[in-house]
Each structure stands twice: as structure tokens, then as C-alpha cells.
Amino acid sequence: MSRAVDPASAAPSAQRGSLTVASPEQRNPGMPLDLQAVRAVRVNRPAADGRAATLTRRRSVKREWQAGWLLRAVTLIDLTTLAGDDTPGRVQRLCGKARRPVRADLLAALGVSPGEVTAAAVCVYHGLVGTARAALRGTGIPVAAVSTGFPAGLSPLATRIHEIEESVAAGAEEIDVVITRGCVLAGDWERLYDEVAAFREACGDASVKVILGTGELGTLANVKRAALVAMMAGADFVKTSTGKETVNATLPVGIVLARAIREYFRATGIQVGLKAAGGLSTAKDALAWLILVKEELGDRWLDPHLFRIGASSLLADIERQLEHHVTGRYSAFHRHSLG
Q: Are 192 and 229 in contact (CB under 8 A)?
């Protein structure tokens, strides 16, 4: 039987069993590499696929509940532009959309103040960090920069670390780093651990989101192993994809990552975030990932400190769905542009 779900219905408890729960603002300090745990990972692919297939069938989010979930999704979006023809003007327009991601008349009809709904962050290339910082000054919306030879991650390590340092110096508060996928495919977990730990150190106070490039890791077991190593090395978030791979964020991958995060939390009491990126373009996609996070990790993860969606066109479709909820009519996609 389908049922409506409120993503904020359950207040987070202070403890889970006897394990003290860290606040979402507490960063992951990392831990020594546990090779035994990494090598012992096994993933049942049919079970992961089956679980993913049931997510949206078991839960139905309709009417005002759907509007509430979609507004929550907006606050979790890292509004992103990573095109070769990006310009300061495009980034400024994107930042304007991040500040006011949903039209004021729609928010008024839903009984929501415009100031209550902003994007979680704006994500750009390093050269446009300063432009984004200036456009977002005073809003509290952080700037995220992709770094470390994005998207391939094959630049020399010293160059990748220097990129991070330059982006942090320019004012980026979050850094999305790319791992060397070859480390995973070769089972070189020590090298991967050292690489992510070096990225974490270079980030300083900036949050580090580790892009695994899951579509290029071969198996779901490799996805989980890579996620565990990244968390052991101090990742604040594990992120599915660059958005440039052939296969990006899929629900089976999301389940595997969520369970890796859950295992790390149970072992350490530290909450690591999850970022889904690549291929999420519809409101239906956003709802599916919200359901996944709620069911696999719980309500406390439905917060920008612990869950992000990297997207651009997704926001326009969410706004279309909200307009349909308010007016009963669908508008053209181009009426909800990003800038």
C-alpha cells in the first residue's frame, strides 16, 4: 500500500543505542586505513537492484506532501555549471537563481517565505570562484569548486593539491575532488587512502566532497570499497559522479553508498554526507533520492550538511512541478530558466 511521507516527520534523536551521535557540523576526522575491512566487502548486485526497484513503488508522495518534498530538494541542490563556455555573466545569473530558486508567487501560494528557500551551494570551476563569491556575498550560500584535475583526475598529485589550495585561497568553502579511478580498479587502497588524505589536508577548513566516479569503478563492491577508503581518509562527503561519465548517479549505487556511510557511522559515530550528481534532471529523480536517503540513512541526513544533489536543469523541472501543484497547469520548461 502506498503512503504519503513527510521528510521532516521524525525528529533526530541524540543517540543510537549506546553510540553518541556527532552533530552534522562535526567534520569527519578520518581513521587509520583498515585494509581487512575494505578487502572483505561484498555486494549482492541483484539484491541492490531489487531494493532500488522497490523504492518508489513502496512510497507514493502526492499533493501537498510532494510540494513539501520538492521544496526540501531545492534546499539540497548544489546548483552547478561546469561547461567549457562558462562566463562570469552565466555564473552571476546562476548565483541569482541560487538565492531565489523558486518564484516568489509560487512560494507565497505555498505559504513559504522567499528567504526560507535557497540552494545549498553553487558549484563552479576554479576560475569563476571569485565571481561566485562576489555574487553570493551576504547570503550564507557557499561556493564549491571542482578540483584535482576534474573530471579525469589524472594530473600529477602535486598539481592537484595546488589546485585545491588555490581554490581555497580564492574563497571556495567546499571542494569537490576527483579520485584516481585506477587505484580502485587495481586494488591499490593504500595509494587511494594517501591521495584522499592529502586532498583533505590541502582543503583545510573547506569541506571536501570526494567524487568516486562510480560509473567507472567496474562493480558495486568496488564502489563500496572506494567509499569506505575515502571516509577513512577524512572525506566529508562521498559523491557519485563528475556528471561527465557515461553512467552517473544510479539508485543501486546510491544504496551501496548509503550503506557504506551507515556502517562508518555505526563504527565511529561520525556522519558522512552523500552527494548524488550526474543525470538527475527531473523532479521524479529528486524524489527517488530523497526516499532512498530517508529509508537508508534516516531523517537526519535530509539536511544540506549531509545530503546534496548536484544538478542544474533539475531545478527547472522542480519549479514546473510546484507551479502545477499551485495552478493545476504545466508550463513550458523555458519559463523556468536558471538565469
A: yes
